[in-house]
Amino acid sequence: MDNIGEGERFAALPLFVAVIECGSFAAAGRKLGLSKSAVSKRILQLEARLGVRLLQRTTRRLHLTEAGTLYHGYARRALSLAREGEDAIARLQSQPRGLLRISVPMVFGRLHLSPLAPEFLAAHPGVQLDMQMDDRMVDLVEGGFDLAIRIGHLPESSLIARRIASCRSVICAAPAYLARHGRPETPAKLAEHNCLRYAYYRGGAEWTLLGPDGPVGVPPRGNYQVNNSEALRDALLAGAGIAQMPTFIVGPDLAAGRLLPLLERYPLPLHAVYAVFPERKHVPAKVRAFLEFIDRRLGGEPPPWERESS
């Protein structure tokens, strides 16, 4: 053990962390560009050097031992400090550079960030952009993300949040649906209608409308729930029911009359679009560049999806 150089002594740290994050030697190898056998060999060498077993191996998956759990915490912190050191050096560079991994909601990313990606990359040729679109909440640190776009209420966390734009939602339906079933004039009347629901809605089991006497909770009842907002929009346009939708999706439909706003005397709470990123002493130049870019392109009031549809 004493004959191992300092470089080799700590070279296994990123491999060990990658194995835990990816769940297998093979997946870690693919992520790091190594063979499964090479990763397995380095982990065995690490265990031999430490004199403890870090992982319990079964035919299906890997499990951390007590010692492995303890070592994993230190290894993650060590890699985090190393990345902070790289970020501090990167701040001295005049141009942002390196891999920028961002997590964005599926539909917002497709409609409003994907079209801007070529412009951002053209302005910053030293950056490689990895944009992951997923409506589920991801762990930025565990997932290795530099930044995420999140919409609506933000839970308490150690992340830094930067407000980008407002996010307004409306209760709406297609003219064809209203012609068949009538227009609800009060929140209570929604109980008589087919309310379509978004499966990942974070507001709980109720739609909350703001009435003259305060918030009004309405439990939506209907025959369709889906985990993709564009699929929900398709059902709305087909006249399947009523839904609450953000204007960053249905703004053009409202402007064109394909969808009609309902219960305008009972608006929905105003939310916001945020960029969130891990707290660091030195924010990487690539992250600062992306924040400035989306603030310039998507910021301001009203947001661009409402300006374009007005």
TrEMBL record:
What Pfam family is a match, any one? LysR_substrate
| Top-level taxon of origin | Bacteria
The record's PROSITE patterns line, in alphabetical order, gives: HTH_LYSR
Domain HTH lysR-type residue range list: 8-65
SUPFAM superfamilies, per the entry: Periplasmic binding protein-like II, Winged helix' DNA-binding domain
Does this entry carry the keyword Transmembrane? no
Q: What keywords sit in the KW lines? A: DNA-binding, Transcription, Transcription regulation
Q: Which family does it belong to?
A: Belongs to the LysR transcriptional regulatory family.
UniProt-recorded name of the protein: LysR family transcriptional regulator
